């Protein structure tokens, strides 16, 4: 009883950090070409066009998956501390950081360059702590 009520409220209000609509209930999800906002689905409800992409990872159906439409991505950075950072064309939460282990950065950078994403050049030099000495 509480689950559908919370899903309805979350669908109207959005997720913390941005107005991400939730499509976490039974119903037809939007087609990928019609997505104009960041959207979260249950993995079981992902459109077949996304699941059929070469290299799309297998995700258990009960897990939420967030889709960032390509037209919203303005910039992509790979940072040592934050991992993959997406600069999005929206007011709320214009930056989203997805942690990646540093040993995956080179492989991810190649994949993003091949896909044509606007990648920022890697930062040069060491990262210094802002902690007082």
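^ Assign residues to that structure.
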């Amino acid at each position: 009883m509480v689950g559908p009520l919370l899903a309805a409220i979350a669908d109207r209000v959005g997720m913390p950090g941005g107005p991400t609509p939730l499509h976490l209930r039974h119903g037809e999800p939007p087609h990928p070409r019609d997505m104009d906002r960041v959207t979260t689905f249950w993995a079981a409800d992902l459109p077949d066009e996304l699941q059929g992409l070469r290299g799309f990872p297998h995700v258990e159906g009960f897990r939420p998956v967030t889709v960032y439409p390509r037209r919203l991505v303005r910039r992509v950075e790979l940072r040592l501390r934050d991992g993959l950072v997406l600069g999005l064309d929206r007011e709320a939460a214009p930056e989203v950081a997805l942690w990646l282990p540093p040993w995956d950065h080179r492989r991810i950078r190649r994949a993003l360059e091949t896909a044509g994403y606007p990648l920022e050049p890697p930062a040069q030099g060491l990262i210094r702590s802002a902690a007082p000495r």
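The chain has three helices and six strands.
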